[in-house]
Design brief:
It is a single chain. By secondary structure, the protein is α/β, with parallel strands linked by helices. Helices cover 50% and strands 10% of the residues. It is built from 16 helices and nine strands. The termini are far apart.
């Protein structure tokens, strides 16, 4: 299918081939205003040119990672912009884990194109890079100046920004926060600014996620599961975020296995896209030690973020047990989880039911059981632990983690200890 037909004919043709149960998706198509404007539903990527024009953008920079930039998804979006009379330029040089070098190059491309808006497409890689590029190019500020733990810089200028997720995992489309790797220090940092958040418009079209292979569907889905579990576990009073996290988990409990089993299931893709966004809204409350450690692991080993989270999650869950049992009771009840199978601790509480569900889900999705299986040894345990202690993402973990605890979790995850049917 030629790129120029992608946004118009491919969507309508694909819809015609869908089973009736998947075609009737009008109930999950909507426009949301919270927490950022969202255009949600199958086929709605066709509205991209109009959304840019509404925002006053005629020369957008289209940002995607290296793996996605040559696909029909990006090609179709690019051609739809050109066909509508806009003047897009593609910047497709983003690494799977975006780096400071990628962002500097992207900001240069933005200025060279005299761009007046930015479209970021992809999973966390493309979306985070796009947001970072928009903040740096629009403001003229450095990444260090925009680091999220610093007071927001004044007189921030950010161009119109349309974010289009192609995975259901990171939820990076829902705010301005953007991760990148500092290549000289091998540390992940985060930039953010409320002025950028105000410029975001999201187009969430599940048809753009249909080509995601089962492995990446599983890994990115487990990233969203981790977001929801960690957000729910944060020890602060935020019933709105807790409620959103619980409903996100309920959707993923039903629809993540379905999306992995059949990537063409538009209903499953739709509900997962919503659940991923919801989990990201929930973690405005904070995250925890899974992310506190997985970000340094990703910076040091260039590992896939969602997969790293999935491997670390059961170990951190058990390390946090004393502080999160009431929240796990709530989750087990809301999800209607059954008693754990033989081999788990006999308990009337929900913790073992949640632990058993997560273990079963990981097995069902064929998540590797250890870091060793993805090529990570314990040689960097101390380096990653030291960086995790300094990582603000883990500061809202329900229990304080020191370097010894992080190192212990890292080594357990390498070896596969302290996971699953333990008690």
């Amino acid at each position: 299918l030629h790129h120029t037909l992608f946004m118009q004919r491919a969507i309508s043709s694909r819809r015609a081939l869908l089973p009736k149960s998947s075609r009737g998706l009008s109930s999950v198509a909507a426009d949301w205003a919270f927490p950022v404007p969202v255009t949600f539903g199958a086929g709605r990527a066709a509205e991209l040119p109009a959304k840019l024009r509404e925002r006053g953008s005629n020369r957008p920079l289209l940002v995607a990672d290296k793996g996605l930039s040559g696909t029909p998804v990006v090609g179709g979006l690019f051609d739809s912009l050109a066909a509508a009379g806009l003047q897009p330029r593609l910047f497709g040089e983003v690494d799977a884990n975006p780096t400071d070098l990628n962002i500097v190059a992207g900001a240069a491309a933005y200025r060279e194109h005299a761009a007046d808006g930015l479209v970021a497409v992809g999973g966390g890689s493309g979306l985070d890079a796009g947001k970072s590029i928009a903040m740096v190019a629009g403001s003229g500020r450095s990444l260090d100046e925009l680091e999220w733990t610093r007071p927001p810089v004044e007189e921030m200028s950010c161009p119109p920004l349309v974010l289009i997720p192609t995975t259901a995992g990171t939820g990076a489309e829902m705010d301005s926060a953007a991760m990148y790797t500092d290549t000289s220090r091998r540390v992940k940092f985060c930039v953010a600014h409320p002025g950028c958040t105000a410029q975001i418009h999201v187009i969430a079209d599940p048809l753009l996620t249909l080509s995601l292979p089962p492995t990446l569907t599983a890994w990115t889905g487990m990233d969203a599961v981790t977001h929801a579990i960690e957000a729910l576990s944060v020890d602060s009073y935020h019933p709105m975020c807790d409620g959103i996290a619980l409903e996100s988990l309920r959707l993923m409990h039903t629809w993540l296995p379905a999306a992995v089993a059949d990537g063409s299931d538009v209903a499953a893709r739709s509900h997962m896209l919503a659940a991923s966004a919801m989990a990201a809204v929930a973690f405005q409350k904070g995250l925890g030690a899974v992310h506190g450690l997985s970000e340094p692991v990703g910076a040091v080993h260039n590992s896939q973020h969602g997969l790293t989270n999935a491997i670390l999650l059961p170990h951190v869950l058990r390390a946090n047990r004393a502080a999160i049992e009431p929240k796990m009771d709530l989750a087990a009840t809301y999800l209607g989880l059954p008693p754990p199978p033989p081999g788990y601790a006999t308990t009337d509480g929900g913790f073992e039911r949640v632990a058993a569900w997560l273990d079963t889900l990981a097995e069902q999705l064929q998540i590797p059981a250890t870091l060793a299986e993805i090529g990570i040894s314990d040689e960097t345990a101390e380096e990653c632990a030291a960086k995790a202690v300094a990582n603000p993402t883990g500061f809202t973990n329900p229990l304080p983690f020191d370097a010894e605890m992080y190192s212990g979790v890292f080594r357990a995850a390498v070896e596969g200890r302290d996971r699953g049917r333990l008690q």
